[in-house]
Amino acid sequence: MSRFLSDNYKSLVPYVPGEQVNVKVIKLNTNESPFPPSPKVKEVLSEEVIDKLNLYSDPELKELTAAIAKQFDVTPDMVFCGNGSDDVLAFAIMGFCGRGGKLCCPEISYGFYPVYADIFGVELEQIPLNDDFSINAEDYIGKNKNIVIANPNAPTGLALSFDDVERIVSSNPDNLVIMDEAYMAFCYDSCMELVKKYPNLLVTRTFSKSHSLAGLRVGFGIAQKEIIEDLNKLKFSFNPYNINTLSVKAAAAAIADNEYYDDKISQIVATREKVQNQLRELGFRCTDSKSNFIFASSDRISAAELAAELRKRNILVRYFNKAKIDNYLRITVGAADDMQTLVSAITEILEERA
Amino acid sequence: MSRFLSDNYKSLVPYVPGEQVNVKVIKLNTNESPFPPSPKVKEVLSEEVIDKLNLYSDPELKELTAAIAKQFDVTPDMVFCGNGSDDVLAFAIMGFCGRGGKLCCPEISYGFYPVYADIFGVELEQIPLNDDFSINAEDYIGKNKNIVIANPNAPTGLALSFDDVERIVSSNPDNLVIMDEAYMAFCYDSCMELVKKYPNLLVTRTFSKSHSLAGLRVGFGIAQKEIIEDLNKLKFSFNPYNINTLSVKAAAAAIADNEYYDDKISQIVATREKVQNQLRELGFRCTDSKSNFIFASSDRISAAELAAELRKRNILVRYFNKAKIDNYLRITVGAADDMQTLVSAITEILEERA
Predict the structure, then answer these.
(1) Which of residues 49-68 of B touch A (CB under 8 A)?
(2) What dotted CATH number matches B39-257?
């Protein structure tokens, strides 16, 4: 730390991303898609486009917001795009929870929410989950605080129903409810249509998981236009050109290619169901994950040990050294054959210890 | 504005970027390079790289920081990369000037500094320039506030000498001095070597101007490692994956291609000198710009009128409706032939009014 850092940030503990590696491994630790992006992405990243990178990107992101708006049947003024959905969440928590504002979220959820609360000086209430890791919707009814919920939740994979989400949103009319739908493409139960009905709902999405573009950094939020105006006001006061030209073109091409991604998402969902069942047959407890990862625990081996054993076999999974979930692993649903390698490796590890 | 925006931001006035247009014009309004990026950029944005965009970008940006460190003869732990240098400036002003911290900058300078001060709750002193638009270094000696200065300054184009910069940095040991060298490639008088000597100096740069990559959004700051650690702490608490994979690869390739960019920068500097002289012959007052733009005023036509007349001829320049500079135009140094079209157009406009 330098002598110059403001007192506000001296005790800040940053988010720790999952490990990125260069060696050849089966990488099931950061919930990336195992598939390359749509071939349309390569088409739009042409030499002609690259030669024009001397020009600034469009700060209003018209091409991308139009493509997203069309996909979700909203108007472009209901779409805010960010440099990853982390960017959208940061601006939203900064802007709407303010300094000294109040926010609540599930106690076990995306690890970045408490970090945002810390950096922006927000009073955060972390609400415990039920014993089965499900979110108790009643805890959020008429809460009278801003709310952020990952749906499906991470790392549990469990989803709130559309009806529960509507009850939460409708019972907190004076506070913003952020539904972080980073994993919703694998769940098929989005609350997106509620944005037209409720002025206090912001739904965020990302291209990083379902659209195989984690390396491109594009996310977005959809809400009524007053919310989007506020987010743009913050963006234009922080980093107006927040998404580069290549990411805009690629994401706009990707989101229009439903045929490609619907197929890939179906494959991931099918693999998830298959591997969850295989793990259960091996004695694992698995949540009923609706995302592109599995959340699993075994009485036969501790999660920390299993992660270490898998790592020796060049398979990376995510272990959280955190109360209540420290005997669970979060395992990304990768390519079908890689997942069978995983199942075989786990079988072998368990047999060695039997 | 929504009902939900925090009181902190209700009166925030965002930065207004220069206009981006789609029609065919001579675009001299946002200080972009007229040249395409290095051919090496196209080479590294390969189909293989695009196919791997399903994987997250490296949050530590090792490839890019190493390439920048090599270029400036510093260690990689002295380099912080941002999604444009706006991103670097935002984190620096947020982190080091804190809420209630003190910052000063030239009264006429990059229009974003007051916006940052506003969004981050920083007390900003804007120090008037000399009558000839030069910065009086004495005003910043022993100031005992954080300092941000664009050098060369924008939109004046005037530069502080290396010695003046050192006097400012050395006389404010307990405060951070940010030297924003966005345009320094066109000036050849960087203070970069001072970062090794002074722990309170942060020098920022961008790929947007000299390196023909405005559309790619990459900037960086160089300072001693404690400052860089602080900036990374904020980044990892706001948006860990702040630069996408394509921008990392392209910028790393670009910064290594000195041969290409040295030539392009020389051409821009030569064009700047030529056109400044031509404008002076037409009776304009021009500052001695050391950047990739010209700052010019004429008694024969108001700046606002001239900008409007040029626009009718499909030539865009930047007019600031701001006290003290409202009779000046900031004209980007574009391609040599486009600049001759500009000079001809101005000659014609003046003759029509003679």
Answers:
(1) 50-59
(2) 3.40.640.10
